[in-house]
Amino acid sequence: MPDAPPKIAFLASPTDEAQRALTELVARYGQASLEDAGVLCALGGDGFMLQTLHRYGALAKPVYGMKLGSVGFLMNHHGDGDLLARLAAAEPAVLRPLEMQALTESGASVTSLAYNEVSLLRQTRQAAQIGIELNGQLRLDELVCDGVMLSTPAGSTAYNYSAGGPILPLGSGVVALTPIAPFRPRRWRGALLKADTEVRFRVLDPFKRPVSATADSHEVRDVVEVAIRECRNRTVTLLFDPEHNLEERILSEQFVA
Fold first, then answer.
1. Which of 17, 44, 98, 100 is 20 to 30 A away from residue 54, measured at CA?
2. Hey, which residues are catalytic here?
3. What CATH number labels 98-230?
Protein backbone atom coordinates (compact mmCIF):
# COMPACT_ATOMS: atom_id res chain seq x y z
CA MET A 1 0.00 0.00 0.00
CA PRO A 2 1.26 3.51 -0.76
CA ASP A 3 2.19 5.68 2.19
CA ALA A 4 -0.58 7.91 3.47
CA PRO A 5 -0.06 11.61 2.71
CA PRO A 6 1.39 13.56 5.62
CA LYS A 7 -0.82 15.56 7.93
CA ILE A 8 -0.06 19.26 7.56
CA ALA A 9 0.03 22.00 10.19
CA PHE A 10 -0.31 25.36 8.45
CA LEU A 11 1.28 28.47 9.95
CA ALA A 12 0.87 31.94 8.48
CA SER A 13 2.25 35.44 8.94
CA PRO A 14 -0.33 38.10 9.90
CA THR A 15 -0.41 39.71 6.44
CA ASP A 16 -3.73 39.70 4.56
CA GLU A 17 -2.26 37.67 1.69
CA ALA A 18 -0.89 34.96 3.97
CA GLN A 19 -4.10 34.80 6.00
CA ARG A 20 -6.18 34.36 2.84
CA ALA A 21 -3.91 31.54 1.70
CA LEU A 22 -4.17 29.95 5.15
CA THR A 23 -7.96 29.90 4.97
CA GLU A 24 -7.94 28.36 1.48
CA LEU A 25 -5.34 25.70 2.29
CA VAL A 26 -6.94 24.64 5.57
CA ALA A 27 -10.32 24.29 3.79
CA ARG A 28 -8.68 22.06 1.16
CA TYR A 29 -6.24 19.98 3.21
CA GLY A 30 -7.40 20.30 6.81
CA GLN A 31 -5.39 21.53 9.77
CA ALA A 32 -3.37 19.08 11.87
CA SER A 33 -2.07 19.91 15.31
CA LEU A 34 1.62 20.64 15.66
CA GLU A 35 2.08 17.38 17.55
CA ASP A 36 0.27 15.19 14.98
CA ALA A 37 1.56 16.87 11.83
CA GLY A 38 4.09 15.16 9.58
CA VAL A 39 5.11 18.48 8.05
CA LEU A 40 4.76 22.17 8.88
CA CYS A 41 3.77 24.53 6.08
CA ALA A 42 4.87 28.14 6.67
CA LEU A 43 3.10 30.86 4.69
CA GLY A 44 4.94 34.18 4.52
CA GLY A 45 8.42 35.48 3.81
CA ASP A 46 11.90 34.60 4.99
CA GLY A 47 11.36 36.48 8.25
CA PHE A 48 8.35 34.33 9.05
CA MET A 49 10.26 31.19 8.09
CA LEU A 50 13.03 32.07 10.56
CA GLN A 51 10.39 32.79 13.20
CA THR A 52 8.85 29.37 12.54
CA LEU A 53 12.22 27.62 12.85
CA HIS A 54 12.96 29.36 16.14
CA ARG A 55 9.53 28.59 17.60
CA TYR A 56 9.06 25.03 16.40
CA GLY A 57 12.50 23.72 15.44
CA ALA A 58 12.61 21.57 18.58
CA LEU A 59 9.65 19.54 17.22
CA ALA A 60 12.00 18.12 14.54
CA LYS A 61 9.30 18.40 11.87
CA PRO A 62 10.24 19.19 8.25
CA VAL A 63 9.12 22.65 7.14
CA TYR A 64 7.81 23.52 3.67
CA GLY A 65 7.49 27.25 3.06
CA MET A 66 5.44 29.13 0.49
CA LYS A 67 6.33 32.70 -0.41
CA LEU A 68 3.65 35.15 0.67
CA GLY A 69 5.92 37.98 1.75
CA SER A 70 8.47 40.45 0.40
CA VAL A 71 11.53 38.15 0.55
CA GLY A 72 11.35 34.42 -0.03
CA PHE A 73 14.80 32.90 -0.52
CA LEU A 74 13.93 30.13 1.95
CA MET A 75 10.45 29.64 0.49
CA ASN A 76 8.82 27.87 -2.44
CA HIS A 77 6.48 29.61 -4.86
CA HIS A 78 2.89 29.89 -3.76
CA GLY A 79 0.53 28.26 -6.28
CA ASP A 80 -2.79 26.52 -6.73
CA GLY A 81 -1.28 23.14 -7.63
CA ASP A 82 -1.54 19.90 -5.67
CA LEU A 83 0.31 20.56 -2.41
CA LEU A 84 0.44 16.86 -1.50
CA ALA A 85 2.17 16.08 -4.80
CA ARG A 86 4.63 18.91 -4.21
CA LEU A 87 5.41 17.61 -0.73
CA ALA A 88 5.95 14.08 -2.08
CA ALA A 89 8.45 15.40 -4.64
CA ALA A 90 10.15 17.93 -2.37
CA GLU A 91 13.88 17.72 -1.70
CA PRO A 92 15.22 18.17 1.85
CA ALA A 93 17.88 20.63 2.96
CA VAL A 94 19.23 20.00 6.45
CA LEU A 95 20.40 23.12 8.28
CA ARG A 96 22.42 23.32 11.48
CA PRO A 97 22.16 26.65 13.31
CA LEU A 98 24.78 28.62 15.17
CA GLU A 99 24.54 28.91 18.94
CA MET A 100 25.34 32.32 20.43
CA GLN A 101 26.18 32.94 24.06
CA ALA A 102 26.38 36.64 24.85
CA LEU A 103 27.63 38.18 28.11
CA THR A 104 26.39 41.69 28.88
CA GLU A 105 27.78 44.57 30.93
CA SER A 106 25.35 43.73 33.71
CA GLY A 107 26.67 40.17 33.94
CA ALA A 108 23.69 38.52 32.25
CA SER A 109 24.34 35.55 29.97
CA VAL A 110 21.99 35.13 27.01
CA THR A 111 21.88 32.12 24.69
CA SER A 112 20.16 32.11 21.30
CA LEU A 113 20.21 30.20 18.01
CA ALA A 114 20.83 31.67 14.56
CA TYR A 115 19.90 29.93 11.31
CA ASN A 116 21.22 32.85 9.20
CA GLU A 117 23.86 34.76 11.13
CA VAL A 118 25.06 36.26 14.38
CA SER A 119 25.99 39.92 13.95
CA LEU A 120 27.65 42.45 16.26
CA LEU A 121 26.85 46.11 15.59
CA ARG A 122 27.94 49.41 17.12
CA GLN A 123 25.21 51.08 19.18
CA THR A 124 26.40 54.68 18.88
CA ARG A 125 28.07 57.00 16.38
CA GLN A 126 31.49 55.67 17.36
CA ALA A 127 33.00 52.63 15.67
CA ALA A 128 33.22 49.40 17.63
CA GLN A 129 36.54 47.92 18.73
CA ILE A 130 36.40 44.13 18.75
CA GLY A 131 39.00 41.41 19.34
CA ILE A 132 38.52 38.04 17.65
CA GLU A 133 39.58 34.63 19.03
CA LEU A 134 39.27 31.32 17.20
CA ASN A 135 39.29 28.16 19.33
CA GLY A 136 40.82 30.12 22.19
CA GLN A 137 43.62 31.67 20.11
CA LEU A 138 43.70 35.42 19.48
CA ARG A 139 43.66 35.99 15.72
CA LEU A 140 42.82 39.70 15.48
CA ASP A 141 43.64 41.88 18.45
CA GLU A 142 41.59 44.88 17.29
CA LEU A 143 38.98 45.20 14.55
CA VAL A 144 37.68 48.78 14.27
CA CYS A 145 34.40 48.61 12.40
CA ASP A 146 30.66 49.18 12.31
CA GLY A 147 30.31 45.49 13.15
CA VAL A 148 31.16 41.91 12.30
CA MET A 149 29.13 38.76 11.65
CA LEU A 150 29.37 35.00 11.46
CA SER A 151 27.10 33.48 8.81
CA THR A 152 25.88 29.98 7.99
CA PRO A 153 25.69 28.79 4.36
CA ALA A 154 21.90 29.26 4.39
CA GLY A 155 22.33 32.84 5.59
CA SER A 156 25.31 33.66 3.39
CA THR A 157 23.12 35.17 0.65
CA ALA A 158 21.44 37.57 3.09
CA TYR A 159 23.12 40.18 5.34
CA ASN A 160 26.50 38.50 4.87
CA TYR A 161 26.39 38.95 1.09
CA SER A 162 25.25 42.57 1.30
CA ALA A 163 28.24 43.27 3.57
CA GLY A 164 30.63 41.84 0.97
CA GLY A 165 30.90 38.32 2.37
CA PRO A 166 31.11 35.15 0.26
CA ILE A 167 28.21 32.92 -0.72
CA LEU A 168 28.69 29.44 0.77
CA PRO A 169 27.39 26.16 -0.69
CA LEU A 170 25.17 24.02 1.50
CA GLY A 171 27.10 21.15 3.02
CA SER A 172 30.41 22.96 2.61
CA GLY A 173 31.20 22.59 6.30
CA VAL A 174 32.30 26.22 6.57
CA VAL A 175 30.96 29.51 7.94
CA ALA A 176 31.78 33.06 6.86
CA LEU A 177 33.37 35.61 9.20
CA THR A 178 32.64 38.97 7.60
CA PRO A 179 33.43 42.52 8.83
CA ILE A 180 30.89 45.31 8.41
CA ALA A 181 32.46 48.57 7.18
CA PRO A 182 35.93 47.81 8.60
CA PHE A 183 38.19 50.80 9.24
CA ARG A 184 41.20 48.97 10.65
CA PRO A 185 42.77 46.68 9.47
CA ARG A 186 41.81 48.40 6.21
CA ARG A 187 42.36 45.47 3.91
CA TRP A 188 40.89 42.74 6.11
CA ARG A 189 37.95 41.15 4.29
CA GLY A 190 37.10 38.39 6.72
CA ALA A 191 37.72 34.66 6.70
CA LEU A 192 36.23 31.26 5.90
CA LEU A 193 36.22 28.97 8.93
CA LYS A 194 35.45 25.33 9.56
CA ALA A 195 31.90 25.09 10.85
CA ASP A 196 32.99 23.61 14.19
CA THR A 197 35.30 26.56 14.98
CA GLU A 198 34.44 28.37 18.22
CA VAL A 199 34.51 32.10 17.52
CA ARG A 200 34.73 34.54 20.43
CA PHE A 201 34.29 38.29 20.04
CA ARG A 202 35.50 40.56 22.85
CA VAL A 203 34.30 44.17 22.95
CA LEU A 204 37.40 46.16 23.87
CA ASP A 205 35.74 49.38 25.04
CA PRO A 206 32.12 48.49 25.95
CA PHE A 207 31.40 51.68 27.91
CA LYS A 208 32.60 54.27 25.40
CA ARG A 209 31.85 52.15 22.31
CA PRO A 210 28.88 49.89 23.17
CA VAL A 211 27.96 46.97 20.93
CA SER A 212 24.83 44.86 20.44
CA ALA A 213 24.67 41.25 19.28
CA THR A 214 21.85 39.81 17.18
CA ALA A 215 21.16 36.13 16.47
CA ASP A 216 18.78 36.31 13.48
CA SER A 217 16.18 38.69 15.01
CA HIS A 218 17.03 38.25 18.72
CA GLU A 219 19.01 41.31 19.84
CA VAL A 220 21.08 41.59 23.02
CA ARG A 221 22.29 45.08 23.94
CA ASP A 222 25.52 46.16 25.64
CA VAL A 223 27.48 42.96 25.17
CA VAL A 224 31.06 42.59 26.37
CA GLU A 225 31.75 39.11 24.99
CA VAL A 226 30.03 36.85 22.47
CA ALA A 227 30.92 33.19 21.87
CA ILE A 228 29.53 31.38 18.83
CA ARG A 229 29.77 27.81 17.68
CA GLU A 230 27.78 25.41 15.55
CA CYS A 231 24.89 23.94 17.55
CA ARG A 232 25.61 20.27 18.22
CA ASN A 233 22.13 19.07 19.15
CA ARG A 234 19.76 20.81 16.74
CA THR A 235 19.07 20.51 13.04
CA VAL A 236 16.08 21.56 10.96
CA THR A 237 14.92 20.22 7.61
CA LEU A 238 13.50 22.53 4.97
CA LEU A 239 11.64 21.09 1.97
CA PHE A 240 12.00 22.58 -1.51
CA ASP A 241 10.45 21.96 -4.90
CA PRO A 242 13.08 20.17 -7.06
CA GLU A 243 13.29 23.02 -9.57
CA HIS A 244 13.87 25.56 -6.79
CA ASN A 245 15.95 23.65 -4.24
CA LEU A 246 18.10 25.68 -1.86
CA GLU A 247 21.41 24.37 -3.16
CA GLU A 248 20.54 25.50 -6.69
CA ARG A 249 19.42 28.92 -5.44
CA ILE A 250 22.68 29.46 -3.59
CA LEU A 251 24.62 28.46 -6.69
CA SER A 252 22.51 30.67 -8.98
CA GLU A 253 23.06 33.70 -6.74
CA GLN A 254 26.76 33.57 -7.63
CA PHE A 255 26.06 34.04 -11.36
CA VAL A 256 23.63 36.94 -11.21
CA ALA A 257 24.91 39.89 -13.22
1. 17
2. 46
3. 2.60.200.30
